[in-house]
Amino acid sequence: MTEFTPTEMMTIAASRELSNDDVCFVGIGAPSAACNIARLTHAPDITLIYESGTVGTKPDVLPLSIGDGELCDTALFTVSVPEMFRYWLQGGRITTGFLGGAQIDRFANLNTTVVGPYDHPKVRLPGGGGAPEIASNCGRIFITMALSKRGFVEKLPFITSMGHGEGGNHRERLGMKTKGPTRVITDLCILEPDPETKELTVVSIHHGVTRAQIVENCGWAIKFADTVIETPVPTETELSVLRDINARTKKAHQGTDKGKEAA
Amino acid sequence: MARIVSLAEAVAENVKDGDTVAMEGFTHLIPYAAGHEVIRQGSKDLFLVRMTPDILYDQLIGVGAARGMKFSWGGNPGVGSLHRFRDAVENQWPRPLEIEEHSHAAMANAYEAGAANLPFAMLRGYIGADLPKVNPNIRQVTCPFTGEVLAAVPAIRPDVTIIHAQRADRKGNVLLEGIVGVQKEAVLAARRSIVTVEEIVDELDPPSPNSVVLPTWAVTAVVHVPGGAFPSYAHGYYPRSNAFYIAWDEIARDRETFTAWIKENVLDAKPEDFARHAAKSAKVA
C-alpha cells in the first residue's frame, strides 16, 4: 500500500461519492478537487457546474477561483450568473451540491459568515455566496471538511446554510423537497445523518484512524453507527491522478508576478 | 449614446460622493483601472455593491472611500480573507463599514429586477438560514396564486455601474464574452455606466451570434484602458494573475504595507500603467 495523507484520503473518499449521472454544483477547494478526481477516474461523464456560469466544464488544472478562464474554455456552455441561479439551480436541474464551510454542527448546518455576534464579529468570514440556495435547491448535498474541534462545533454562532436544521423532519416542515446533506466526508471518517434524528453519525473510518481520535477531534459527543466499516484505502490510480492534478495546479498558479509589479 | 472619453473624465462626470456604485465582474473582467481612478479622485462615502467583492473593494475599503457595502461573498477567491474588509468590520479601521449581506442568488435576482425596472426580486431562497434575521432588507412575499411564501429583496439600482469588457466599436457599442457574470444586468439596472475596454475597433466582429453586446444607447461612457482588468483577466486577451491574488494576502494583512502599496501603485500611478498587462491571445488576433 502506498502512503497517503489524511487530506488525500478525504479528497479521494469524497470523489468516490460521485457518479457519471451526477450534475454537480462545485465549490472551490476540497470539493473542486474531489469532483475533478471523480471526472478523471471513475466518472468521466459527470457534469460539473461552477457558480460563475460554466456548465459541463473539464478543467485541466484546479481553478484558484470559481471564475478562472480554464473553466469557461473547457465548458460545454457558459451562462450569466442570474441564469445560473434562476434556471439551473432554482429550476431544480442540479442533482448534487458539494459544500464546505468554516464550521458545521451535528445536524450538518454550516457557518461561513461570522464567528461571534453578527454585529461585532470576532472573525468576519467571507459569507455564504451561493451556499444558502445550493443547500436547499440541489437534490442532495455532500460536505467535505477536515474534522477538528474548531470546525465541528456544538452550536453554530450563525447558520449560513441549513442542513437538517434542528433535526428530524425540520426540512420537510419548512417545505423543502430536497434531501439536504447526505454525507459528510472528513479526513478521519465519513458521517451520515441518522435516518430518524438526522444527527450526523460515523459510518466509515479511514485506515489507521481510531475511534478515540475521532471523538477527540469533534466538538460534540459524536455518535457511531451500529455498523462501522473501514474506508477502502486510495488506489494507486486515484493517488496518482490526485497528485498529478495537484502538481499541475501548483505550477499553473505560481507566477513571476510580484505584488509591486501590479498597476 | 455612449461618449468615448478618458478615464479621468468618465469618473469625474459619473461618480459622485455618496453614490451607490457597483463595480461588477464575477472573477473575470473586474474593472481595476477604473476602481483605481475612483481612489485617485478621492471619492467619499460610496455605498459599494458587488456580489463578490474581492481585492478591488478591499482597496476601496482600505483607503476609506466606502461608507457601506452590499455583497454576497467577500473574500480573496481561492486564497482566503480580505484583510482590509475584515479590519473595517472587526475594528472599524479606517472607518466603520455598514454592511448589507445577501446570498448570490438574491443579489443576482436583485440586479435582474433592477434591469427589469421592478421594485423587488423574489426567489425561493434563504430557507432555514440566519441572514434574514440580521438583514431587514430580506423579507417575504406570498404568491397570489399558490400561497407559497417566497423571499423578497429590493431591486439593486446603482447610481453608477462600472465594468470592464473586451472591446467597443467607435460608436460605443460594447462586447463581452467568456464568463459574463452579472455585468449586463448591473449596467442596465444603473442610472449611469462606465465601461472600460481592452480595444476600440471599427467592427465588433462578435465571434458568435450569442455574444453579449451592450448597445451604445444603454451605456454612458466608454474608455479605452488596455490591461484594465489586471490582476483579473480578459478572456481572449490575458489570463488571471493568480500569483497576484496570492501576493495580495500579505500586502493587505498589514495596514502599513497596504498604505505603501496604494501610494506606489494607485495614487502615484496612472491608467496607462495597466497597458503592460494587456495582450491579445493568438485565438482572438
From TrEMBL, chain A:
UniProt-listed PANTHER family: ACETATE COA-TRANSFERASE YDIF, CHOLESTEROL RING-CLEAVING HYDROLASE IPDB SUBUNIT
Instruction: Give the originating organism.
Output: Sinorhizobium chiapasense
Keywords, ordered alphabetically: Plasmid
- Origin: domain of life: Bacteria
One of its Pfam families is CoA_trans
Checking InterPro entries in the record gives: CoA_trans_fam_I (IPR004165), NagB/RpiA_transferase-like (IPR037171)
- On whether Transcription regulation is a keyword of this UniProt record, the answer is no
Q: What is this protein called?
A: CoA-transferase subunit beta
From TrEMBL, chain B:
List the GO molecular function terms.
Answer: transferase activity
Spell out the Pfam families in the cross-references. CoA_trans
Q: Does the keyword Transferase apply?
A: yes
The UniProt keyword set, sorted, is: Plasmid, Transferase
- Which InterPro entries is this protein grouped with? CoA_trans_fam_I, NagB/RpiA_transferase-like
Record's keyword annotation contains Transferase = yes
Protein name as catalogued? CoA transferase subunit A
